[in-house]
Amino acid sequence: MNAESKIELGTLTVSTSPHIRCEESISKIMWTVNAALAPAALFSVYQFGMGAFSNLILCIVAAVGAEYLILKWQGKPMVANDGSAFLTGLLLAMNIPSTLPWYMPFLGAVVAIGIAKHTMGGLGYNIFNPALVGRAFLLASWPIAMTTWPSMASKVDGMTSATPLGILKLQGYEKLVQVFGDQAVMYKSLFFGTRSGSMGETSAILLLLGGIFLIYKGYIKWQVPVFMIGTVGLMTFVFGGKAGLFTGDPILNMMSGGLILGAFFMATDMVTIPITTKGQIIFAVGAGLLTVLIRLLGGYPEGVCYAILLMNCVTPLIDRLVKPVKYGARR
């Protein structure tokens, strides 16, 4: 019996699998995620000017182009337009400063697609999030350029400034509040995105709305962003304290850096995250703990990128740890 054949037995229709069908597809899911991220990306262009726009175009074109050439060279079905490469380029652009020269985002996108994705077998087989691998490559290759951030006036006069986490790391909490004027203004700037940083460190509210939309569509589970962001807030409050230059302000730490972008759009990557809900919670808590560890004790003010990549390494172990027991069997 082939996939199209069926037998009519009264009111019963017997056919070959799959028996449960839905209208979802890889392409539909990927383009929906792109659409959910688009408002924050467009706001970053408004915020940082043409540099941000150039980075978006370069990363997306390089990612899709690399996907097309690799698939053509390998003789595989052409799926470069399914939205996955587009999403990798978009996420990479959101993880870098808008001040990078053109060849850096271009090379970062090629590394993300060519090495992180296709050397491992392509979509569905990659161990690490490709966009984060591209960012890690750029940070290791050009650390100064990757940590030189545009100021709020950069689209007019080209000025640069430190990120909120950078100021917190080097000069302390009081200096950070002083830079913004007062604590309420600081929270407002973080929430609406009027601050310096990468293109993904823009409007927290737009990123949150995009993430909530994906939860509503059922493409991601709420447990991952909630547990990851909540872990960062709780651990910062408990261990940040007043020691040295650090602070236990959970609101600041939850809205700063790339935490919201990473928690909603990269830690939830269907390929690199554990399969079960319990496993995803372990993944999210681990990523949150590593983020706090890097922020508070490391030499780098941000830790989301490496936290997610490190947890990607242990995803197979988490899956094995929480593997469901077969019906009738013992663990």
What does this structure look like?
There is one protein chain. 61% of the residues lie in helices and 4% in strands. The protein has 331 residues and is mainly α. It has 2 domains: 26-146, no CATH class; 160-320, no CATH class. Helix 8 crosses helix 9 (173-180).
Any descriptors?
331 residues, mainly alpha, two-stranded antiparallel sheet, 4 strands, 61% helix, 4% strand, globular
Summarize the structure.
By secondary structure, this protein is mainly alpha-helical.
Helix content: 55-70%
> Low-confidence spans: pLDDT under 50, at least 5 residues?
1-9, 153-160
Q: What overall form do the CA principal axes indicate?
A: globular
Q: Evaluate the radius of gyration.
A: 21 Å
- Tell me the major beta sheet: 2 strands, antiparallel
Average residue-wise pLDDT: 85
Q: SS-based structural class?
A: mainly alpha
| Elements, N to C (H/E) | EEHHHHHHEHEHHHHHHHHHH
Say how many strands there are.
4
How many separate helices? 17
For the termini, the CA-CA separation is 38 Å
* Total domain units: 2
Strand order of the largest sheet: 1-2
Q: What portion of residues belong to β-strands? A: under 5%
Write the layout of secondary structure elements.
Elements (H helix, E strand, L loop, with lengths): L5 E4 L2 E4 L10 H23 L1 H25 L9 H11 L8 H15 L12 H12 L1 H4 L2 E2 L3 H4 L2 E2 L2 H8 L1 H8 L2 H10 L11 H14 L5 H17 L10 H6 L3 H7 L11 H21 L6 H10 L1 H7 L10
Antiparallel strand pairs: 1-2, 3-4
